Amino acid sequence: MFVQPSSFPQLYVAGVPQGYAASTSGGGAFIGCMQDFQVDHKLLLPQDLIREENQGLEIGCSKRDWCEDDPCMQRGQCVDMWVRPSCQCHRPYYGGRCDKEYPSWTFSHENTTSYVSYNISETHGQNFTVSFLLRSLKHNGLLLQLHREGQPYLTLYLKEGTVAMYSPHTTLLSEAKRVTDGSNYLVAVQVQYGHVVFPKAGHHRALGNVSVEAGDVAYVGGLPAGMSTNAWGGNMKGCLQDIRLDHKHLTTEGLPEGVEVYQASTTQNVLPGCHSDDTCKGQPCFNGGQCQITWNDFQCNCSVKYSGLLCETRLWCVDHPCSERVRCVDLQDGYECLTEAIFQDNALQYVANSSLLSPVTDITMDIRTRDQNGILLRAASRAEVFCLGLLNSSLLVKLDSGPSAELLAFTSDRVIADGAWHHIQLTMVEPTHSVSRWRLTVDGQRLGGSFGVGGNLNFLNDTNVWLAEKYTGCLGDVRVGGVYLPLIDVPDAPQMSRFSRLGGHEPIIGCQGSPICDSQPCLNQGVCQDQFNEFNCSCSAGWEGALCELEVNECSSSPCGYGTCQDLLADYQCACHPGYTGRHCEDELDNCLEFSCVNGGTCMDKGGAHTCACPRGYVGKRCQWRFPPVACDADTTCLNGGVCIGGDSGGNCTCKPGYTGARCETEIDECESRPCLHGATCLDRLGHFQCVCVRGFSGRVCENNREEHTERVPWLVVTIPLTTLCVLVAILVVFCMVLTARKKRQSEGTYSPSSQEVAGARLEMGSVLKVPPEERLI
């Protein structure tokens, strides 16, 4: 409460005392902050408060983020109410912090028959909503059915994984979204005045006249004995939670006070909570796989040598049965050792021993060669013949599948002996028929086929097959009826359908041609590109030819339009004719751009040359002379001290320094070229200029920075004395060394009186101090 303003006897802000609350319609006190509060343009400040009537007011505006710590536990949306958080819970959660959950029920647990029935005690009319949470892996089943007087009038069920609705008054209605992947889905269906609305899908359809009346019965998850659910895909299997009809909760147990419910009237085999079947009790995993329950399903954790949903597939390649440089591929019942190999007229022979389980209706092969002729695959048995080979670099097929069929022979429309890899496929056009036309494709493109019809090649199951006869090149994946012909010997392959090698020289693993680029055949820095037993030279700029042996004549294309071309290495140069310019002499010069006529003359460009068309009274190349010439007489006056000098072309003025013009009438502006530096001001003088320098600069054009000289002076002051001192010290040291050397020289040499005197003294002392005779004891 504030002290009394001029307009009101009392003023309450953000709330009123308890005695006035019944007279207000605002719905409660204000919660929040206020600033710049005015009444009658008068600012009311906190010090104007009547302290004893102040309740819950704080100075300032401090605010805590109540939603920062996620009080709703990611189960709802937090709303900051200024003094506390408020949680708008997602279904099926409720409570002040969404910490509670509406119960769920498991239907058809362990394949039992279950359902729940509810007696509807209120009329919901034509506008109602059915909603619940669903978790299921069964794609079909009854969810909810409404009965009146023993007859169903509305059915909600699962159809191929989607929620569908049926009424006797309409056709099938369904939502497009699949909801049977084991996750929780909120399903909501609204009925409004004869139309059904799927809110998630955003569309509605006509349903007919349907209303929920008091006395109706709702069945959930199934129907009682004697009522069939086959039309709806059987009973629902999975979990249902938080089932509602409008605001009414359909439940089997008590819910919090204030929640309106329909209690279950009948319950059969419904398990509280959401539970999974024991899907591992039948031990579904093979070969030692460990079964793991994953809610109404299972997962087999297989050992390292097995794979598949039930660990039923053996992984042979983990034992590395193939040799090095060979790729191992697992099959359903075995493995294959895939590789590429080089053949040099060393054929291989195979036999299937009647092991092929499927009809032979196709043959595939990967090939790389430059051999123009050779037999790739051949087999013969009495009346049956098959041959796939090369003829003049193209494919040739001959096929005779028995007496009842005709001999088929056809070739490809494309050369494949080009050193590149190609995938060949020979197939029956109609493999399920006894006879059919055959089609030949290379790299996915149809390149040939038979005009007549022939049977399959099942005789290859019981006869010898020859591979790579009189053939030089590489072969890769070769298959007959989908069964691999191993290029290396694999004696212990366990698969049922297989070809075994009978003999032949072992091919060379890999596919490398001869080292044709080792001799560096390309000249002039060309790069050799190995193309499988052939090479191609990628020439450097300026060279061409098979071996880059020919210099490219860049002038052969006549690039110079109006000029002469000079051939250079990887380039050319154009010498342009007069009047033309440019890289290719394509631009005509305008000679008048660099030439000017004076005295009103007009420049004319003709044939690469220029002339001046002079006005009357002027002649010369640039119209610079008067005609007739003007002599140095009284009519020719030179201004500003200029001197007239006569000649053949008339009188001309020679100007004093500082002036220009035909009569020296114009003073030269020496400041026009801006000679002054560093922001100095230029003053134009007669015949010269003067620079007024800014502070810190000097010189004729203010080119010297006096501050830099000032900074260098202390270093000079220190450096010069130190240098002088060092020179003096060096001179003194040299002088001392010279004196020492001279003294030493005086005491050395061939004759030294001082040393002779010392030696003589030693001799005299030696004669005086003689050693006494030696005494011996007898």
Automatic annotation (TrEMBL):
Coiled coil: none annotated. It comes from the Eukaryota. GO terms for biological process: hematopoietic stem cell differentiation; Notch signaling pathway; positive regulation of cell differentiation; regulation of non-canonical NF-kappaB signal transduction; system development. Residues 105-274, 340-511 form the Laminin G domain. SMART domains: EGF, EGF_CA, LamG. Signal peptide: none annotated. GO terms for cellular component: membrane. Keywords: Disulfide bond, EGF-like domain, Glycoprotein, Membrane, Repeat, Signal, Transmembrane, Transmembrane helix. Pfam families: EGF, hEGF, Laminin_G_2. The chain crosses the membrane at residues 715-739. Residues 63-99, 276-312, 513-549, 551-586, 588-624, 628-665, 667-703 form the EGF-like domain. PROSITE patterns: ASX_HYDROXYL, EGF_1, EGF_2, EGF_3, EGF_CA, LAM_G_DOMAIN. GO terms for molecular function: calcium ion binding; Notch binding. Disulfide bonds join 89-98, 302-311, 539-548, 555-565, 576-585, 614-623, 655-664, 693-702. This is Crumbs cell polarity complex component 2b. It comes from Champsocephalus esox.
